[in-house]
Specification:
The protein is α/β, with parallel strands linked by helices. It folds into 4 domains: about 5-120, Rossmann fold (3-Layer(aba) Sandwich); about 130-315, P-loop containing nucleotide triphosphate hydrolases (Rossmann fold, 3-Layer(aba) Sandwich); about 325-405, Helicase, Ruva Protein, domain 3 (Orthogonal Bundle); about 425-480, Arc Repressor Mutant, subunit A (Orthogonal Bundle). The chain has helices at about 10-25, 35-45, 60-70, 85-95, 105-125, 135-145, 155-165, 185-195, 210-220, 235-240, 255-270, 295-300, 305-310, 325-345, 350-360, 365-380, 395, 425-430, 435-455, 460-465, 470-480; strands at about 5, 25-30, 50, 75-80, 100, 175, 200-205, 220, 235, 245-250, 270, 280, 285-290, 315, 350, 385, 400-410, 415. A 5-stranded parallel sheet has the order 2-1-3-4-5, with helices on both faces. Strand 3, helix 3 (about 60-70) and strand 4 form a beta-alpha-beta unit. The longest helix has 21 residues, at about 105-125. The chain starts with a strand and ends with a helix. It holds the Pfam family Sigma54_activat.
Amino acid sequence: MKKILIIDDEVNVAVLLSKFLTRNGFNVTTASSGSSGIEHLKNEEFDLVLCDYRLEDTDGREMLRLIKTEYPTTGVIIITGYSDIKMAVELIKMGAYDYISKPLYPDEILNTITKAIETRQALMEAADAPAPVASAKAIKKQAVSSNDVVVGTSRASKELFRQIELVAPTNYSVIILGESGAGKEEVAKSIHMHSHRSSQPFIAMDCGSLTKELAASEFFGHEKGSFTGAFATKIGHFEMANGGTLFLDEVGNLSYEIQAALLRTVQERKVKRIGSTKEIDLDVRIIVATNENLVDAINKGRFREDLYHRFNEFGIYLPPLRERGADIMLLAEHFLRLANQELGRNVTQFSAEVIECFMNYRWPGNVRELKNIVRRATLISEGSEISIKSLPLEISNYKLPVFDHGNQSNYGQSSFQQQQPQQDRPEQKEQRHDLKNAALEAEYETILRVLREVNFNKTKAAEILKIDRKTLYNKMKAINLK
């Protein structure tokens, strides 16, 4: 269980935060002053500190300096009011992971904390690796110890490592092309952590979830009162990533108007918040990811060619999991170790049947799907071995596809039709008697089928399923597809 220390002299805020985070699985300790917070840090180790910027006996700057000096592996998030936002951005440059502005919103808090802990874990494990960009072997060691990163010994993985090693020390903008779930964000993190910017922020942004109205504010920020609903100053992602790396996922989903504004920012290396006349100089490396061929999008008039060439200083193709052979089981074993640590289990191996299923399955959700399957199987396994009955039906009943070699996709996938599944095992038929489980299973299979049909493009999937994108995200999370 991850341990969090909340330092806030507003007792009500600390209590509410503590209750909320405890309900979400964290071990929480509170302190009402900077000095008592330091005492807690002396007595026990914490994964993360949430510290209010304004304290009676000190301030966030001094607390950050002390924590980073004495406890450098502990992550820090600053809680700030409107008037302190500019200082909070400075604190991020000093080593704070992020800031949360008041009033506090539960989803924002949980998302920021989760990302901070994941980043802390990746950086701690990366510290054991040899000197940055020393060799492909060094990159591999760091990749193995990160949560979701693509690892392996296959020819495709070795080529991926070689490209990461080649581009990491440069300032080139990078386009990562690969299917959804293949690990594009993890490749971007690996590039960042092996660059000279590794001590600076890595800011990830999902362009696929942005509406046209919100995109400009998310990218560039806004001043208080600049438009209806702008109740406080907001720092944009470009400004947050200044000095470090900005990762833009599903960049092909951006509207044409936002692409034009993005092009100006990339060209001029300056950003201006909405409602402000002040330009801010930028030193940001941009890495973008897409699951579609942007050249095709240019030909169809959906993506600007000039922006594409700005981004495409270096291109990396991330192979789908099904093309990586023995890497599948290497990854599965890696995720099994992580799941054991997370769940406090002692599952040590996969049965021969499970290994055969994993090697035959097409993995449309790629590395993300494999991780979710292994975590689920680790949780429900009764012994020390993951058996076939611990796998979802779409994997345990999977048959090798019948290929139509005349129809190739952008990724080299062959279109195919699955053969009829095997008959359900008795245990599975018994589970179907539970109406709730049957309904959840049907929903799982429907969502998965539609996602496969649209190559895991969540915007298109939501349209086909006749739900909004946020609802789809929530359903995917509920059934462990995300």
